[in-house]
Amino acid sequence: MLERDTPEELPSDKLELKLFRKSPLGTRIDENCLSPLTTREILYQKRSQAKRMIKEKEELRSLANKSYTMEYSASPLRTVHMPFIKVSYKKNKKKNLDVNSSNSEVDEYLPTDDESHLFPEFCEVFWTRLDCVGWKPESSQQLSMVVVQNKVFLIGGISRSIIGDVNVFIPAYKRWEKIQTIGVESEPRFGHSTVEYKQKIYLFGGGTDFNAVHKLRECLNGVKVLNTENFEISNLKCSGSYITTRKQHCCAIVGKHMFIHGGMNQKNNLLDDASILNLEKSHWKLLSIKGLGPGYCGFHTAVTILHPSQKPASSIYKLPNLKKNQETHTGIYIFGGINRERKATNNLFLLKIGTKQLTWITPETKGTPPSPRFQHSMSYNEKLDILVIFGGRVDIVNTQHYTCFNDVFILRIQDWTWITIKVLGNVPTPRSGHASVSYGTKIYVFGGVGTSAYCSSNLYVLELNQKTARHLIEDEERRKAKELEVETMRTKRVEFQQEERKKGGFRNSE
């Protein structure tokens, strides 16, 4: 448990900042912040709080000196709030804690713009290219990423060859680690899906090696389970309906049910079926869904969105009841992909869940939606209640060429509004086939391929929190202004030296 520092222990000026970093609170903040900017912001906010509280104490003492008969309990200033960071015992026990994560006690303490519970209609987002420490995995496409206990797992993909590696990124330390798994061997795969359930990762489907005899690339329909505690991989023996081998499908999880839809078989024919896997019973069930859905579709994306009060959901068929008059747009959202005519789409579908009869609906959105695309990424940021779509590609009609995107689109879930965005910072190159995850108020993006080559193995972070993004933008503007100032001074120095040489040459000629 973090200690509550008294005002006297907090810094009162910049010279005491280094001393404060050594205190219990300062050390914890300094260790877990991803950037010096965040550290300074928190430390200076603490300093301001200390000054404010010390002033309140002085006012109390002043009032007491003026009238000893005055009852202390009658003073409106009798309550002095000590600065402290909310933290639970269980959270404090966890290692690799990141203050920018959704589980961060510091993030819970700081006031944010999203406390209004409605994301603004115009927003600024900021891209950062992370300078990771040490080794980085090889860049690839059609890979998967999933967050488990403040760690980002990266699995599979295709590059120079099909990849079967399991790699982990630790945001708190900005470091990649290559995992040596035990147990059964997991086939190298791409175009697969991964979900997290009870701190285990479930891998389904994907494409694998090329079969020279049948002249096609094999697809998988088995389920592998990765234990994130000991990194053991095991096969999940399933019963129930037969599930066709597939790749490039979409996948989401609701409670104990893993939902899959569509994709392509090993002959590259599109599929239109939907199934769920009960992860407790290892039982597949083919779904019959009411309404008009995506149909035959591949390279599309899916995410589950639940109201916070529905988080204990254990089944796709039953959700905890919401309070009266509480509006919600919960369910499984599916966007984009290619249809039966092999054309990219920008269709948005919502699978309404929580009843025995699942139903497709088409949300009536406002604003400007993304253009048609596939092989994009889509993430739900639970903290801000927004859907974030990045990148993707579209094929140029009657040619072998295609165009990749690096644009960002945000859908505000509360009223289904596409937000107007100003994108700043170190924007990633246009790409498709990449992977993304939501972590805290950020979106992490890795891999992908452009129109002519694979993208770099750099990890990009999109900051969505408006207050933090504004600080990053201001820092970037100051940095550019400083660079311009230095360049201007350098130019003036060179011009001055040239003038001096001319004057010296003129005097010598005389």
Automatic annotation (TrEMBL):
Pfam families: Kelch_KLHDC2_KLHL20_DRC7 (PF24681)
Matching InterPro entries: Kelch-typ_b-propeller
SUPFAM superfamilies: Kelch motif
Keyword Repeat: yes
Keyword annotations of the record: Kelch repeat, Repeat
Organism superkingdom: Eukaryota
Listed name of the protein: Uncharacterized protein
